[in-house]
Hints:
- The chain is mainly α and 192 residues long.
- It has helices at residues 2-9, 14-26, 30-43, 48-60, 64-77, 82-94, 98-111, 116-128, 134-148, 156-168, 172-188.
Amino acid sequence: xxxxxxxxxxxxxxxxxxxxxxxxxxxxxxxxxxxxxxxxxxxxxxxxxxxxxxxxxxxxxxxxxxxxxxxxxxxxxxxxxxxxxxxxxxxxxxxxxxxxxxxxxxxxxxxxxxxxxxxxxxxxxxxxxxxxxxxxxxxxxxxxxxxxxxxxxxxxxxxxxxxxxxxxxxxxxxxxxxxxxxxxxxxxxxxx
Length: 192
C-alpha cells in the first residue's frame, strides 16, 4: 500500500505511521495497528491521537483499565486534546467510574475556561452521572446556559447538552423546549 511505502521511505515520519495504523485498524489488524501507533509514539511521544487510538483498541478488546490508563496518559501529554479527554470520560463511565469523570472534567473546565469542548463534556457528564452532587449539577447547568447563550449555542450538540443539564435540575419544560428547538434547527438547516 501507499501508506506502507511511505513508512519505508520516511521511517521517522510520524504521520505516515499514524495513517498506517489507521489502515491496519480499519482492516481489523489490531496488533499491526497498535504497532504502527506505538511507532508514532517513539517518534513523537506527545502524540495524543496515536495514544488515543491505542486506547480505543484496548477498550474495544475489553481492556478497560488499560484503556483508561492510555487515555489518561494522552490527556496528561496533551491537556488540550478534547478528543483524548472525551475518550477517557467514556472509558471511566463504562467502568462505572462516572464520579471520577465528573471530577476530572470539572478540573479541566476550570484550568481551560475558554475550551468549549471541555465545557460541553462537563455539562454532559455532570448532568447524566448519578454520582454528581447538587453543586456539580448546578455548575453544569450554568456552564450549559453560558454555552447556549454564546455563539456556539446554535449548534444542536450544545443545545442538547444544555437540555440535559436542565432535565438534571428537574426543569423538564425548559429542557423539552430547548431540545425541541435544537431538533427543529437541525431539520430546518439540513443537519448543519
